[in-house]
Amino acid sequence: MSTRTNFSPKVRGHARRGDDPDALALGEIVRTARIGAELTQDQLALASGVGRDTVIAIENGRGTVGLGKALQVIKALGLRIVPQERG
């Protein structure tokens, strides 16, 4: 019989969500575009030349992904970034 008393669910490291509103918004756009293109995260990673963990990090809004890798994913989806001043 187990004597374990802590049954809290483990949070998978790659499932953590970021806290930056801009990164979260970008992640939603990327996820929506990927699903609309009927691509899996693996397929998008392969098409963009990045690892699946990078796609997951972008979709979860984590700001740890470098700009170059994020741009690779964005371009593979046929998207582009248009800088805009905050108002």
Automatic annotation (TrEMBL):
Residues 1-20 are annotated as: Disordered. This is Helix-turn-helix domain-containing protein. Gene3D superfamilies: lambda repressor-like DNA-binding domains. Residues 30-84 form the HTH cro/C1-type domain. Pfam families: HTH_3.
